[in-house]
Amino acid sequence: NASAKFKKSARTVGDVLGKYHPHGDSACYKAMVLMAQPFSYRYPLVDGQGNWGAPDDPKSFAAMRYT
Protein backbone atom coordinates (compact mmCIF):
# COMPACT_ATOMS: atom_id res chain seq x y z
CA ASN A 1 0.00 0.00 0.00
CA ALA A 2 1.60 3.27 -1.12
CA SER A 3 -0.10 5.32 1.59
CA ALA A 4 1.02 3.08 4.47
CA LYS A 5 3.43 4.35 7.10
CA PHE A 6 7.09 3.38 6.92
CA LYS A 7 8.26 0.46 9.08
CA LYS A 8 11.57 0.32 10.89
CA SER A 9 14.30 -1.69 9.21
CA ALA A 10 14.80 -3.71 12.38
CA ARG A 11 11.21 -4.93 12.11
CA THR A 12 11.64 -6.05 8.52
CA VAL A 13 15.00 -7.71 9.21
CA GLY A 14 13.53 -9.46 12.25
CA ASP A 15 10.64 -10.82 10.20
CA VAL A 16 13.01 -12.11 7.51
CA LEU A 17 15.31 -13.72 10.08
CA GLY A 18 12.38 -15.33 11.86
CA LYS A 19 10.75 -16.74 8.75
CA TYR A 20 13.46 -17.39 6.17
CA HIS A 21 17.08 -16.83 7.23
CA PRO A 22 17.87 -17.70 10.87
CA HIS A 23 21.46 -16.44 10.79
CA GLY A 24 23.11 -13.05 11.32
CA ASP A 25 21.16 -9.86 10.72
CA SER A 26 23.98 -7.90 9.05
CA ALA A 27 23.75 -9.73 5.71
CA CYS A 28 20.01 -9.24 5.59
CA TYR A 29 20.26 -5.54 6.42
CA LYS A 30 23.05 -4.94 3.88
CA ALA A 31 20.93 -6.58 1.18
CA MET A 32 18.01 -4.32 2.10
CA VAL A 33 20.30 -1.27 2.00
CA LEU A 34 21.41 -2.16 -1.52
CA MET A 35 17.77 -2.50 -2.58
CA ALA A 36 16.95 0.94 -1.13
CA GLN A 37 19.90 2.84 -2.61
CA PRO A 38 18.82 4.55 -5.86
CA PHE A 39 22.38 4.34 -7.22
CA SER A 40 22.98 0.60 -6.61
CA TYR A 41 20.40 -0.90 -8.92
CA ARG A 42 18.71 0.53 -11.98
CA TYR A 43 15.49 0.94 -10.01
CA PRO A 44 15.21 1.02 -6.19
CA LEU A 45 13.39 -2.07 -4.94
CA VAL A 46 12.72 -0.73 -1.43
CA ASP A 47 11.21 2.68 -0.66
CA GLY A 48 13.50 3.70 2.17
CA GLN A 49 13.29 6.58 4.62
CA GLY A 50 16.44 7.79 6.32
CA ASN A 51 20.16 7.61 5.61
CA TRP A 52 20.78 4.82 3.09
CA GLY A 53 24.26 5.98 2.04
CA ALA A 54 25.68 8.26 -0.63
CA PRO A 55 26.93 7.52 -4.16
CA ASP A 56 30.49 8.52 -3.24
CA ASP A 57 30.44 6.32 -0.09
CA PRO A 58 27.77 3.61 -0.40
CA LYS A 59 28.81 1.98 2.89
CA SER A 60 27.97 5.13 4.87
CA PHE A 61 24.39 4.05 5.60
CA ALA A 62 22.91 4.49 9.06
CA ALA A 63 22.45 1.68 11.55
CA MET A 64 19.34 -0.45 11.37
CA ARG A 65 17.71 1.28 14.34
CA TYR A 66 17.75 4.65 12.54
CA THR A 67 16.26 3.67 9.18
TrEMBL record:
Under InterPro entries, the record lists: Topo_IIA-like_dom_sf, Topo_IIA_A/C_ab, Topo_IIA_dom_A, Type_II_DNA_Topoisomerases
Q: Which organism is it from?
A: Escherichia coli
Q: Which PROSITE patterns match?
A: TOPO_IIA (PS52040)
On the tree of life, the source organism's domain of life is: Bacteria
Membrane-spanning residues = none
Coiled-coil intervals: none
Write out the catalytic residues in the record: 66 (o-(5'-phospho-dna)-tyrosine intermediate)
Q: Cite the PANTHER family for this sequence.
A: DNA GYRASE/TOPOISOMERASE SUBUNIT A (PTHR43493), DNA TOPOISOMERASE 4 SUBUNIT A (PTHR43493:SF1)
Q: State the reactions this protein catalyses.
A: ATP-dependent breakage, passage and rejoining of double-stranded DNA
Q: What is this protein called?
A: ParC
**Pfam families to which the protein is assigned, alphabetical:** DNA_topoisoIV
